């Protein structure tokens, strides 16, 4: 901190990015305080008994490949602060109507065994990237800049800057591989014919092979708790149940203020301190498709037609390539698919702390237009029943969280958008504006998922915002 005009930092919001920013600043000698509006820390990494006593559910995020792959989180002693990762035998299953499934295994070759004639093409696409995954993620999880590993980045970019449809059709001959890749790419929450959607599928598949798609023992809250515990060990302070209405009293010549907030949240508390042209840019920031989420308490595990699905922590329910594409395309057009693409997690198969003995939990969502009030409960459950006949007979209780409910829990999830804003090509790198983490107001910064590299539990937005504070301070 030598030469810095800032000696203190206040972080507004305790999501993974806010916690990461606070930790990095504390590492560098700043006196750090986090102010959190809710009673518990965590933002999108919270857990609670949403259905019945004894059934522990993840309120937002549930499966965390990017947390394990995060270049910043990997440097922190989070295991010493109570975080334990569970790796399901297979990261992902994608079942089909015939009772078979493609599995994303940690092994590329074992994954290929479920892809038929596309096994060789799959290996050719992914093995070079998996072999160099640490360098790849070091360049990808951050703001747009000249890559430190240009050969790896170029290899990635030649495939990734395409649409998911284009890459799937050019790389694979069979329906199984194409549908499997479409499901992974659909995590983008964009129509799969848009440029750069292939990148989401590639990144998450590479992560599955390299580090898995793990779950935290005891729920996603454990990620936030470990980060918070480590921050306190560095001397940082966390104040909960305290909502900031204005930054006026926080901004001083010696204190930087970092906001783990969406552009809307930043405007609410600091708009009067921002120039008009910057306010207009924040007001034009685009929020993406929303999640419609359901949690279930179950009297047994889900009765999948394909027994292989019980090996996977995550299950993608969309069947064919054409069906997944139609579902995601409909969402972008403001429509609702009769057969929505559903992303489902079944943590209690691998973590007995999630439910009473012999009982289980499940977590799932589909994509809907931002701010939607349409009830997707029956359509989601129909999709599960399609691949797991008898699922409805297992339900003891459910908690439905439409977009408005998600936003009520976490104001950053505007209209139910869980990625901090649309992550299309125009808004992936320069978010929320070309200033990235800085604002025109001295000492005021933004460190949320609305800054690069965007959505996901990885803390890198917070880390880079903290580095910006130090470089400017």
What this model shows, in words?
It is a single chain. By secondary structure, the chain is of the alpha/beta class. The protein has a domain at 8-48 and 57-83 and 216-285 and 422-472: 3-Layer(bba) Sandwich (FAD/NAD(P)-binding domain), CATH 3.50.50.60. The chain has 17 helices and 16 strands. The protein has helices at residues 16-27, 65-69, 108-112, 119-131, 133-140, 150-160, 164-171, 175-185, 197-210, 221-233, 263-270, 276-283, 321-332, 377-387, 403-409, 425-428, 460-472; strands at 8-12, 31-35, 47-48, 57-58, 85-86, 90-95, 101-104, 215-216, 237-239, 255-259, 290-298, 312-317, 342-345, 360-368, 395-401, 444-446. The strands form 4 sheets. The protein has a 7-stranded mixed β-sheet with strand order 7-6-12-13-14-11-15, sandwiched between helices. The protein has a 5-stranded parallel β-sheet with strand order 9-2-1-10-16, with helices on one face. It has a two-stranded antiparallel ribbon with strand order 3-4. Strand 3 and strand 4 form a beta hairpin. It starts with 7 loop residues before the first strand and ends with a helix. The mean pLDDT is 96.
The total strand number stands at 16
Strand order, sheet with most strands: 7-6-12-13-14-11-15
Mean pLDDT: 96
- What's the name of the CATH homologous superfamily of the domain at 8-48 and 57-83 and 216-285 and 422-472? FAD/NAD(P)-binding domain
